[in-house]
Amino acid sequence: MLLADRHDASRQFSEHLVALKQKNSVVLALPRGGVPVGLESTRALEAPLDLVLVRKIGAPLEEELAIGAIANGQDPELVTNAQLVADLDISADYLEAAKSTALQEIERRRRVYLGNRQPVGVVGRTAIVVDDGLATGATMLAAVWAIRRRNPARIVLVVPVASNKSCSHVGQACIKRSFETMIHAGYR
User: Fold this and answer.
1) Domains of the chain
2) How far apart (Å, rounded) are the C-alpha atoms in residues 164 and 172?
3) Can you give the three-state secondary structure of 95-127, one letter per residue?
4) pTM for the full predicted model
5) Tens-digit pLDDT profile for residues 146-156
6) How does residue 19 score in pLDDT terms, banded at 50, 70 and 90?
7) Comparing 181 with 57, which gets the higher pLDDT?
8) Of all residues in the chain, what percent are helix, strand and coil, respectively (each to 5)?
9) What is the pLDDT of residue 187?
10) Phi and psi at residue 118, in whole multiples of 5°?
């Protein structure tokens, strides 16, 4: 599937999601890239849009290398790549400091993006989690674990760009946690 941009991705994916229209759905986007992808889906599904705030935790001296991610919430959800953490000999102190910094940034963004608005309820609903792509899958997994705590009936992941490896990794991680997740990925 060829995608011109995030808006095109959103339009194309909304066609695949129409079957969920009657499933009491809510679209949960990971800012920033997931928001444009999620907008068209909210229109097609007549579903509300909300945000899931997640921050990647980068390796020391290599911030773009995700060793994990953390999602906001009353009990923040931290996901790490245990193999990378071990291979790079990353200390617990580094992880704790990176977690604290990430949570401060998440809180800043929450205030900027959402103000005092309360999260859209997901209990018993189909939660459609949208991002613009999967690299390592760490941010998506942190988001999914945090959303799962909010008791949706079902979680559907939508990403326009992902490798087969990242889709497989995220899918297997969800299976290990024993819950149903569908992954829709366009370009792999």
Assistant:
1) 6-52+118-187 (3.40.50.2020), 54-114 (3.30.1310)
2) 12
3) HHHHHHHHHHHHHHHHHHHHCCCCCCCCCCCEE
4) 0.82
5) 888 889 988 88
6) low
7) 57
8) 45, 25, 30
9) 47
10) -80, 150
